[in-house]
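Team,

Forwarding the record for the chain on the shared tracking sheet. I've put the sequence and predicted structure together so nobody has to dig through attachments.
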Amino acid sequence: DSVEWEGRSLLKALIKKSALCGERVHILGCEVSEDEFREGFDASVNSRLIYHDVFRDPLNWSQSGEALPGGPLGALQAMCRRTDRGPVTIALDSLSWLLLHLPCPALCQALCALSQQHSRPGGSSPAEPMRVLGLLHEELHGPGPLGALSSLAQAEVILSGTMGQASAHILSRRPRQHPARQTQWFSILP
């Protein structure tokens, strides 16, 4: 997203869709409080959300014991070792916050590990599907981190627009195929 076109609404819509399809949804919340993030979801969606709070005390300064072990990177690594049965969605709110607090290579390695889970721990059977969603404020980052994250993505949605007209540029990548581009325009009502 950008300053002009926020993407959290789109992220929350995708989370809601995953939850309503019966998926467990893990949220690594970095930019807003858990209460603010859950706002607008009904009880059936909220019951499927597992919120990992980095927002409240990201660097464990309070030393209250409530911070995630290993910080945000530890939380991502723990999600790699998930034991949930069934399809799972992991939502990162936001990749920008993570990029500002973690080295880009470490974040990319963690994201790669999440997306390449092909077997359950201790077995050789295929893992249940896992989808990773991330909100990124592109104006905060240079071409290097943006390119690195882009190379990991199967799909990118870039929000933009002018004068009450918004657009979503969608770039999807499928293995062994050329990337497909699509632009959707829609009006913003006052």
